[in-house]
Amino acid sequence: MSTQQITPELRQWIIEQATAGHSAHALLKAMVERGWDEDVATDAMEEVLQAYLRERGLTVPAVPAATQPPPASLVPEPDLAGSPSTVWAGDREVQVVMSMHDPRVVVFGGFLSDEECDELMALAAPRLVRSETVKTDTGTSEVNEARTSDGMFFRRGENALCERIEQRIATLLRWPVENGEGLQVLRYRPGAEYKPHYDYFDPAQPGTPTILRRGGQRVGTLVMYLNTPARGGGTTFPDARLEVAPVKGHAVFFSYARPHPSTRTLHGGAPVLEGEKWVATKWLRAGRFE
Ligand SMILES: O=C(O)CCC(=O)C(=O)O
Ligand SMILES: [Fe+2]
């Protein structure tokens, strides 16, 4: 047993560092450099961050020691204290349709107006190309059979609409605009799908450290539905046996405090059976994505 104590000052320091976007690994390194035993530092950080998450009504499941993943980071989280039916997102009242704690999934209604959905699709349409995904073994992008949609990226704050939506997301999820990637728009034609995957970058892949240099890990996702497909195209969470219906203007949020399957955030876009499906995705990083 160690005699090193988690003082209120250390607790405060850990929260401040994590809130400023420093990764759990960076904090751990700093603590070890200050003379902390690595195992004790890991436990201390875990305890402080768990308590912080618990105060926000969140928990991060414990994982067997033999498969211990990286320590937990802070995550975006809407203020649903008191179980409100609506939340104010700074410029708009958003409905809380469903909230699940493990995995952490929240479905919002009326996150975007019909006009905003239409404008976003119109702005994205001329720029759509066959979707590529980031290859974590090399850090490059490639066409992927698991994702048979067309997509494009806006730069963060690229136009007034993106800026408005990004600010709304930041307010709703209490996460800095600067930690968000640019909005991605995807169009799925009939038969197209996005096979179940995790949005975080796999720490075991050799290309991941390069990707993480810009903004750190992804810790949360907001998928916004820009239209209502006639049939199919739900967002599925196989570990929770949950399927979120794609409804124009609705959005599904999920967070993952560590880049690990124990977050149960495996998810996918089910095949579209009839009509088209359009979504906009916002990925949120642990740190500033500049
Ligand atoms: O289309 C969906 O429902 C899911 C999209 C998704 O998983 C993503 O953009 O990362
Ligand atoms: Fe995803």
UniProtKB/TrEMBL annotation:
GO terms for molecular function: iron ion binding; L-ascorbic acid binding; procollagen-proline 4-dioxygenase activity. Its cofactor is L-ascorbate. It comes from the Bacteria. Residues 179-286 form the Fe2OG dioxygenase domain. This is 2-oxoglutarate-dependent dioxygenase. InterPro entries: Oxoglu/Fe-dep_dioxygenase_dom (IPR005123), P4HA-like (IPR045054), Pro_4_hyd_alph (IPR006620), Pro_4_hyd_alph_FE2OG_OXY (IPR044862). It comes from Caldimonas thermodepolymerans. Keywords: Dioxygenase, Iron, Metal-binding, Oxidoreductase, Vitamin C. PROSITE patterns: FE2OG_OXY.
